[in-house]
């Protein structure tokens, strides 16, 4: 009974779209920022992004369920030296959420097409969490488009076997409740969203009401639950890249937050052992999004790596 119900159009309409809304998209990165949000059409879908600075292009890629906002403390400092672009991935942030299958290949090809629409032939990719996975997948799939890599608390190809955060483990082991019903409920609950955000940082005080409201608004946009469900369901397909990681030849900086409650530091150490031209940096007293939690430390390391000649 339950499997047939889950596949029915009525179920999808109720659990994936119930209470989801169409919001007026903001015009700026946040209320305190002068950085304007721009849009571009990629394969007919609106992708939100910011662009600031001139010089060698750097693209900042957020993680699962997040958005441009996780990079708000990097855009200004990095744009003094480089052209910085940060985007809301397809299905995330304020970008469109088409009802498609969100496989690793979906993200890879949308990202490649985004680069081409913006006229970017080659760029340094800086990715956090799932965004790190997209960055190394781009280096494997389209190596000529990637100058160098910075992977911040990046997922590995076998991500499901490494997850350790309590909130994220619940996404895998939810007793007696079908996964997508749980997800549909959790993404509309501010307390659930707050717990996930607090899993991502060591300093809980950083999760202010403004931060929570911003993420809640994003999670309530029509189509969000489907995107998160489909992405998680297809995560195992990233295993196809595991044997190819060692083929990445670009200079790579791997950063891990010492107190990451989502992915253990050993993931960063594994990536460091596997990628032949990599180095490893551990951010003390920081969690899953150290560039947001410890921006001064991380920005210094980023700029130093970007300035090096390889």
SSE diagram, text form:
Blueprint: H1 2-6, H2 9-17, E1 38-42, E2 45-52, E3 57-61, H3 75-79, E4 83-87, H4 104-117, E5 123-128, H5 130-141, E6 146-152, H6 166-172, H7 179-186, H8 190-199, H9 209-219, H10 224-233, E7 252-257, H11 265-274, E8 278-283, H12 290-293, H13 295-307
Parallel strand pairs: 3-4, 3-5, 5-6, 6-7, 7-8
Antiparallel strand pairs: 1-2, 2-4
Helix pairs in contact: 4-5, 7-10, 8-9
The gist of it:
The chain has about 300 residues and is α/β, with parallel strands linked by helices.
Level-1 CATH class name: Alpha Beta
| Widest sheet, order of strands | 1-2-4-3-5-6-7-8
Which CATH architecture is right? 3-Layer(aba) Sandwich
Structural class: alpha/beta
Question: Separation of termini?
Answer: 59 Å
Provide tags for this entry.
single chain; 310 residues; alpha/beta; Rossmann fold; eight-stranded mixed beta sheet; 8 strands; 38% helix; disordered N terminus
Give an overview of the whole structure.
With 310 residues, this protein is of the alpha/beta class. The protein has one domain (2-307): Alpha/Beta hydrolase fold, catalytic domain (Rossmann fold). 38% of the residues lie in helices and 15% in strands. It has 13 helices and eight strands. The protein has helices at residues 2-6, 9-17, 75-79, 104-117, 130-141, 166-172, 179-186, 190-199, 209-219, 224-233, 265-274, 290-293, 295-307, and strands at 38-42, 45-52, 57-61, 83-87, 123-128, 146-152, 252-257, 278-283. Strands 1-2-4-3-5-6-7-8 form an eight-stranded mixed β-sheet, with helices on both faces. It starts with a helix and ends with a helix.
